[in-house]
Amino acid sequence: MHSVVLSWGASSTSGVTYNVFRGTSSGGEGTTPINSSPVTQLTYTDTNVTPGSDYYYTVEAVDSGGSSAPSNEAVADIPNP
Q1: How far apart are CA 50 and CA 53, in angstroms?
Q2: pLDDT value at position 15?
Q3: What's 4-77's CATH class?
Q4: 64-81: per-residue pLDDT in tens?
Q5: Which of the four, 15, 33, 53, 62, has the lowest number of CB atoms within 10 Å?
Q6: How far is CA 29 from CA 5, 32, 36, in A?
Q7: How far is it, in rounded angstroms, from Cα 77 to Cα 81?
Q8: In this predicted structure, what is the pLDDT of residue 14?
Q9: N-to-C CA span, the chain
Q10: CA distance 42 to 2
Q11: Pairing label, strands 54-63, 74-77
């Protein structure tokens, strides 16, 4: 079974959570996060991946003022078993 572990840095601002977005093409992450609840840690593990596929990820920080701009895109190439 494959998974993708994402990690990112953060500012020292308290009360920030994160949303993770995934796409199957560059720039295609969409607007619906793949996390079912706000991420409070600086890591996220995506276990819903298919061998032989490429995935593209961005992360947005969320606080009382709204969402940040998306992070730089990260790419994961899932190998065949």
Answers
A1: 6
A2: 87
A3: mainly beta
A4: 999 999 999 999 999 997
A5: 15
A6: 17, 8, 16
A7: 12
A8: 81
A9: 8
A10: 20
A11: antiparallel
DSSP 23: E
Domains of the chain, residue spans:
4-77
Whether 14 contacts 63, CB under 8 Å = no
pLDDT in tens, 44-69: 999 999 999 999 999 999 999 999 99
Per the CB < 8 A criterion, the answer to whether 47 and 3 are in contact is yes
| pLDDT number for residue 67 | 93
- What is the tens place of the pLDDT at every residue in 23-38? 999 999 999 999 999 9
Half-sphere exposure of 4 (CA within 13 A, CB side): 22
Distance of CA 47 to the CA centre of its chain: 12
